[in-house]
Design goal:
alpha/beta; globular; seven-stranded mixed beta sheet; 15 helices; five-stranded parallel beta sheet; about 425 residues
C-alpha cells in the first residue's frame, strides 16, 4: 500500500483526479451522523468527489486503487476555529509589527500543510489579516498550496480599544496597524461589516466581549453595545453572511444571541440563559478547549511570555471552559469542533478530542462535532463531513476504532482531500 500511495502523492493533482480512484476500506464511517461503522467497502471517487460506495473490494482496469483494508476510514476532520497565518510564541508581539501580509501568507502556507497532514481537510480561519488569509484561501482551493479548504472571516469586527483592536504599542504605531474593521456606533459597525463582505469574508467574526490575548486590562465582559450588536448581525444577514462571536462573558453571549447572532466561540461563562438562547436559535457552540488549556499552561509555567494583562485573564478564563462545555453538552446545545489553533500549535488540533471527552462527550459525539456538525455550522453541509455520493472526497484513515477512542485521531496515517492523496504512512 505504501508504494502505491507514494506513487499517487508524486503525481500532479490534475493527474490524480483525472480517472477513477477506488479506496478499499476495511472499516469505514461513511456518515458520522448515523454512527454506523461498515466493513469491506470501496469508495469510488471521480473528479474529487465520492460517486459511489460499493460493497466489497472493487476496482476497474485503469483505475487507481488505494488499499486501506487494514485501516479505519472516516471523513476528513473540520476545525471551526483556527488562526492559520500565525502561532502564539514569545515573539508574537514583535511579529505583529514586523511581518507584512505577504509574509503572514507564507507562514500560513507552512501551517496549512501541517494542518492538512494532521487530518484536517477543512478549517475556518477567524480573525486573520485580510490580504494574507484570503490569498491563502485561494491558493489552497487551487491546489497551489497543500492545505485544508479554508472558510475565512478575515479581520474581526471589533470596538475601538477592545479585543481585536491593536493594544499596548505606541499610539502612532497602533494607528497604523488598526484594521478598518474596528468600529464605534451602530452605523459605523454596519459599515465595517459591509466592508468585510466587500473584501471577501465568507463569515463575519466579531469580538462580542474582551479577550484573553489582547494586551489590555479591559476585562472579559461585553464590549459592544446592544445597538451595535444588532446592527452588525442585521447587516451581515442582509448580505448573506452568518455571524459568529468570540465571547467569554455571559453578558456578551446573551446580548449577541438576543441580537440574532448565529454561534458562539469559546463561551467561557455561558449561563442558563445563554444555553436556552443557543437552543432556541439552533446555534452552535465552538468550545475551543485547547485554547483555554494552553493559555493556563503558559500563564502558570516558568517561561510565561504573556504580558501581565494577558496572564491575569488567562488564569481567570482558562479553568472555566471544561465545565462550561460539560453543562452545554448535558443541556443539548449543538457543539462544533474548534480549537483556536494558532494560540496552541498548528498540527496539534486533534488534541481537542481528549478535552471534549473530559467534558463528557462520547468518542462518536466528538467525531460528529468534527465532521457533520462542523460542516453544518460552516454551511458546508452538502460538501464535507460525510463520504456519501456527491460529497468531496475528503477522507482520513487511522489504526484502531476512533468511535471507541477518539484520541486515536491524533495519529492520522492517511489523508486525501478532494480526491488527492497528501499523506500515506
Amino acid at each position: 500500500m505504501a508504494a502505491l500511495c507514494a506513487a499517487a502523492i508524486a503525481l500532479p493533482a490534475a493527474a490524480q483526479t483525472a480517472g477513477t480512484t477506488f479506496v478499499q476500506a476495511g472499516r469505514v464511517l461513511v456518515d458520522p451522523a448515523s454512527g454506523k461503522v461498515e466493513t469491506q467497502k470501496t469508495l469510488v471517487i471521480q473528479g474529487g468527489k465520492v460517486v459511489r460506495v460499493a460493497d466489497g473490494y472493487v476496482s476497474e482496469p485503469g483505475g487507481k486503487v488505494v488499499d486501506l483494508k487494514d485501516r479505519f476510514v472516516l471523513p476528513g476532520l473540520i476545525d471551526s476555529h483556527v488562526h492559520i497565518t500565525g502561532q502564539q510564541n514569545p515573539n508574537s508581539r514583535l511579529e505583529e509589527v514586523t511581518q507584512s501580509g505577504a509574509e503572514q501568507a507564507m507562514v500560513g502556507a507552512r501551517y496549512a500543510r501541517k494542518t492538512l497532514m494532521a487530518g484536517f481537510t477543512t478549517v475556518a480561519d477567524l480573525g486573520g489579516d485580510n490580504e494574507a488569509v484570503f490569498a491563502l484561501r485561494k491558493a489552497t482551493a487551487l491546489g497551489d498550496v497543500p492545505g485544508p479548504r479554508i472558510v475565512a472571516a478575515g479581520s474581526a469586527i471589533s470596538i475601538h480599544g477592545g479585543h481585536g483592536d491593536v493594544n499596548g504599542y505606541r499610539e502612532d504605531v497602533m494607528h497604523v496597524l488598526r484594521p478598518e474593521s474596528v468600529c464605534s456606533g451602530a452605523a459605523d459597525c454596519s459599515r465595517a461589516v459591509r466592508e468585510q463582505v466587500w473584501k471577501g469574508a465568507d463569515v463575519i467574526k466579531i469580538t462580542a466581549t474582551g479577550g484573553v490575548l489582547s494586551n489590555t486590562a479591559a476585562g472579559l465582559g461585553q464590549q459592544f453595545s446592544d445597538e451595535e450588536l444588532k446592527a452588525i448581525v442585521d447587516s451581515a444577514h442582509r448580505m448573506g453572511r452568518r455571524v459568529t462571536a468570540h465571547a467569554h462573558g455571559g453578558d456578551g453571549i446573551t446580548s449577541f444571541l438576543k441580537a440574532g447572532g448565529d454561534s458562539i466561540e469559546h463561551g467561557t461563562w455561558l449561563d442558563a440563559e445563554g444555553i436556552a438562547l443557543l437552543k432556541k436559535n439552533g446555534g452552535y457552540l465552538v468550545p475551543t478547549l485547547m485554547a483555554g488549556d494552553f493559555v493556563v499552561g503558559i500563564a502558570k509555567g516558568p517561561n510565561n511570555f504573556f504580558t501581565p494583562a494577558q496572564t491575569a485573564k488567562a488564569l481567570q478564563a482558562g479553568p472555566m471552559m471544561l465545565d462550561m462545555t460539560r453543562r452545554a453538552h448535558q443541556a443539548g446545545v449543538k457543539i462544533a469542533f474548534g480549537t483556536d489553533t494558532g494560540v496552541s500549535a498548528h498540527g496539534d488540533n486533534a488534541g481537542e478530542f481528549a478535552l471534549l471527552l473530559k467534558a463528557g462527550m462520547t468518542s462518536l459525539e466528538t467525531i460528529q462535532a468534527a465532521t457533520v456538525n462542523a460542516a453544518d455550522h460552516l454551511q458546508l453541509g452538502q460538501v464535507a463531513g460525510r463520504l456519501t455520493p456527491g460529497y468531496s472526497a475528503d477522507l482520513i484513515a487511522v489504526d484502531g476504532d476512533p468511535t471507541k477512542d477518539a484520541t486515536i485521531l491524533t495519529k492520522v496515517g492517511f489523508v486525501m482531500k478532494d480526491g488527492v492523496v497528501y499523506k500515506a504512512e
